[in-house]
Amino acid sequence: MLVLVTLLTGACWFSNSAWANSPDRLSRILQQKSLRVCIWPDYYSITFRNPRTGQLNGFDIDMAQQFAKDLGVELTFVNSSFAALMDNLVGDQCDIAMHGVAITEARLEKLSFSEPYLKSDFYAVTTKSHPTVTQWDDIDKPDVVVGIMGGTVMEPVMRKALRQAQIELIYAPKTREQELEAGRIDVFITDYPYSRKVLDNADWAALLGPSKPFFITNYAYAIAKVKTPGDQRWLNRINQFLLATKNDGRLLAIARRYKLERIAVSDKK
User: Fold this and answer.
1) Residue 70 sits in which domain range?
2) What is the pLDDT of residues 147-194, one digit of tens each?
3) What is the pTM assigned to this prediction?
4) I need a labelling partner for 185 at 20 to 30 A (CA). Which of 20, 52, 141, 267 fits?
């Protein structure tokens, strides 16, 4: 037992020492000429893989390409999800998450965020023919089943907000649209970008918005929690990139390309 403890202690010391003496993340990215970006490939207009062509497109796909170009490095996309987000970043599976990550208190415990670049309220999607859910105020009623994608910011917020409706968590490979069209849920909660997917592709869908702001959410780029000066240097470089794209017009131009200009945070400084 004593030998085992000694070996484990030595292994931990070596790991920490090696980390302390290694270049910080930004230096490693530049030296290795490689940027690993976590994305959720089902996020329409943000980071979406076209099921017919297999090609990635969306606001943050284009922004990631611009960031890699500014850094002068190669870009690698790493498939992730909101449920796996924190584990992927903390586990060093990627250098940054660029897929419309909402800033929440729970995520701030393990992650650090850039300045916001998008902001959106919550929206609801139901069917045009639904007999009882025709406006936002119809959602929190008995016998209404509300679909929410597990791991998204909508989950904790709607758990607190809904008093009578039943919540049904949905995880891939299931989709909210499939569950709604099949009649297993009455409505689902989403944000502005994802609502565009439904409206662009389903003529049976109806969009319901709150009559007043419900939960305005800021979206930012995420990295593992800042703990060292090197981590802060990496976060500063990300914010430098965002500021540059706001000032030179790239951010707003990309937002317009994907019909997201109404939620873009493109104020210049």
Assistant:
1) 25-119+218-263
2) 999 988 899 999 999 999 999 999 987 889 999 999 999 999 999 988
3) 0.79
4) 52
